[in-house]
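Good morning,

Attaching, inline, the backbone tokens for the sequence recovery test we're adding to the shared suite. The designed sequence is right after.
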């Protein structure tokens, strides 16, 4: 027959084990929540894609999203929203800084097949990404060093008419958002060099650019793009 003291000691140990397990579970949950957080980029910031993703990357998605700024009507009432056609493009550059190819609404797939544009959104309506460019990092030719992502207003509307604009990098396999960059700086510019990913010491890095420009497509502001290579 066990003594009362033995039962008290056993109960105390069980409580200790329960509290330890509960604490470990909470820590694990908090760690997972922190590890799943993406990086909110600031202009000029550079990150390692694989380090932030937590492992090897095969395919990444550059997503572009925006909303049309609501216009105020008479005395602040009766306003509405129109449509703004922003276009995401990806320009491929070799080690010499020469343009090798471009993926945009007039060519939705790179000649080597490594980069695909999912289609043109001419309104900005809907939640989440309005346009996406998928990059298969394993298929990007070795002579390609830099991929530059730009956004331009096809109808010439300025970013003063846009709000909640962003670009983000996502691991396509896991769906995890790796990094996000706010593009909502308003002004009279009609285009912006959003970001670039580039090879560096055997890995892919992401550089938030945020350089304003003017033009209806990337062809109109190539000097600005060359300036950030």
């Amino acid at each position: 027959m066990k003594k009362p003291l033995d039962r008290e000691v056993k109960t105390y140990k069980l409580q200790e084990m329960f509290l330890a397990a509960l604490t470990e579970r909470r820590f694990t949950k908090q760690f997972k929540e922190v590890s799943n957080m993406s990086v909110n980029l600031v202009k000029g910031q550079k990150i390692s894609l694989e380090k932030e993703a937590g492992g090897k990357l095969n395919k990444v998605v550059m997503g572009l999203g925006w909303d049309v700024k609501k216009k105020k009507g008479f005395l602040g009432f009766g306003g509405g929203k129109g449509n703004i056609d922003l276009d995401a493009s990806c320009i491929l550059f070799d080690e010499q800084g020469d343009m090798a190819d471009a993926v945009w609404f007039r060519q939705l797939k790179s000649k080597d097949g490594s980069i695909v544009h999912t289609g043109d959104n001419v309104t900005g309506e809907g939640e989440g990404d309005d346009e996406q460019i998928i990059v298969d990092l394993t298929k990007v030719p070795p002579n390609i060093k830099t991929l530059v992502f730009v956004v331009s207003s096809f109808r010439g509307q300025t970013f003063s008419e846009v709000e909640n604009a962003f670009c983000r990098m996502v691991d396509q396999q896991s769906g995890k958002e790796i990094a996000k960059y706010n593009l909502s700086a308003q002004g009279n510019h009609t285009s912006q060099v959003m970001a670039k990913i580039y090879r560096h010491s055997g890995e892919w890095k992401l550089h938030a650019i945020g350089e304003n420009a003017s033009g209806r497509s990337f062809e109109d502001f190539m000097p600005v793009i060359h300036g950030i290579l």
